[in-house]
Amino acid sequence: LGDPNHASPAVSGGKLFFVGTHNVYCVGKK
Length: 30
Description:
The chain is an all-beta fold. Helices cover 0% and strands 40% of the residues. The chain has no helices and 3 strands.
């Protein structure tokens, strides 16, 4: 992702969230 990540991914509402140093990323269906 190009953004350092030290947190565990989280699942909410059927989506997977990654918290980076500068951004929050969400992976899942719209």
